[in-house]
Specification:
- InterPro entries: Chitin-bd_dom (IPR002557), Chitin-bd_dom_sf (IPR036508).
- Pfam families: CBM_14.
- GO terms for molecular function: chitin binding.
- This is Chitin-binding type-2 domain-containing protein.
- The structure is a single chain.
- The chain has about 325 residues and is mainly beta.
- It folds into three domains: about 70 residues, no CATH class; about 40 residues, no CATH class; about 180 residues, Jelly Rolls (Sandwich).
- Helix content is about 0%, strand content about 45%.
- It has no helices and 24 strands.
- The strands form five sheets. Strands 6, 7, 8, 11, 12, 13, 15, 20, 21, 22 and 24 form an eleven-stranded antiparallel sheet that branches. It has a six-stranded antiparallel sheet with strand order 14-23-16-17-18-19, with no helix packed on it.
- The chain is globular, with a radius of gyration of 20 Å.
- About 5% of the residues have low confidence.
Length: about 325
């Protein structure tokens, strides 16, 4: 039962028909199969039916059991006090997510809406779509232990676990500014060599190579993106020897910014920053992938081993 791995009262799409979705009960068991109205499809991120003219009507008028899924008191999400633009899983209050700019989170219908009498901080304010400093245990879908290391809480990765960021499944990169920031500490780990790489952050999953990734081997950090409508990657490699701080931490950043026709791809490790100047013309957004963004895992990569901290993923310029 898929609901056993999801928060109570969660909705999730039917894999065979975008008009249909499934509802989990408060006991984390499958409760019902439901349908959006004709001309609408289920949006997993918004947890509701949205207009989708490309979604075929497979249910018929007798089976349209819901116009807009509502969660009410069963909503697994809650707004961040004092910042209505952000929300969090109730069972994991330390990891917050952001609504699109100018929208606020409405717990009554469990989705982001235009604010009703709520003043949202300037739409120019940039907040990360995902951020964690591993200060509290992570939520149900992740199996990364949080430990104290050098006097601070960090995520300990052993090569088998990963942190899953579902906000970037099927979307998330069609933006004028995308950025990943984090700190990496190898501790006593020796990264792979001989052509094998270790995943730091990737969306390589579902037996499909990534559209964005940060990986590493024994010599380099690698930063890679695939653009929409392109099968050729753009990649930056930065040798990391000597770029760690006094405590062994590498400050790592990937940035992809611009607009249709002209983008800039930049990578940073410690004090060294490189701008992509390779043969691939950067003229489109980063491509989407079906599956989520992962920290510590990637299809065809070795799992990350070491410590990670201060992870922020942005869809705007910080």
């Amino acid at each position: 039962d898929k609901c056993a791995a999801l928060p109570p009262n969660t909705l999730f799409p039917d894999e065979s028909a975008c008009q249909k979705y499934w509802r989990c009960g408060s006991n984390q068991r499958l409760a019902s199969s439901e349908c959006c109205p004709a001309g609408q499809g289920f949006d997993q991120i918004a947890q509701r039916c949205v207009v989708n003219s490309q979604c075929p009507d497979v249910c018929g008028p007798c089976n349209n059991t819901s116009s807009t899924p509502t969660a009410g008191s069963g909503c697994p999400l809650a707004p961040v006090p004092g910042n209505p633009n952000r929300y969090y899983y109730v069972i994991s209050p330390g990891t917050t997510l952001a609504c699109p700019e100018t929208l606020v989170f409405d717990a009554a219908i469990c989705t982001c809406v235009v604010g009703q009498g709520v003043v949202v901080t300037s739409p120019q304010l940039c907040v990360p779509t995902f951020q964690t400093g591993f200060d509290i245990p992570l939520d149900y879908q992740n199996n990364i232990p949080t430990i104290s290391y050098q006097g601070q809480q960090v995520g300990q990765f052993d090569g088998t676990g990963d942190l899953v960021i579902k906000a970037f499944a099927q979307s998330g990169f069609h933006t004028p500014h995308f950025q990943i920031d984090l700190r990496v500490n190898l501790a006593n780990t020796v990264p792979p060599s001989g052509g094998q790489r270790m995943a730091v952050v990737t969306n390589a999953d579902c037996e499909t190579m990534e559209s964005v990734s940060i990986t590493m081997d024994a010599q380099n950090f690698y930063f890679r993106i695939y653009q929409m409508e392109s099968t050729t990657p753009a990649e930056i490699a930065i040798p990391f020897a000597g770029l760690q701080d006094a405590n062994g931490w590498y400050k790592v950043s990937l940035m992809y910014a611009g607009g249709p026709g002209s983008f800039q791809f930049t990578a940073t490790v410690g004090s060294k920053t490189e701008v992509y100047r390779g043969p691939v013309l950067l003229d489109n957004y980063i491509d989407r992938r079906k599956c989520a963004l992962h920290v510590g895992f990637g299809y065809m990569y070795a799992g990350f081993q070491g410590y990670l901290d201060d992870i922020s993923i942005w869809r705007c310029k910080p």
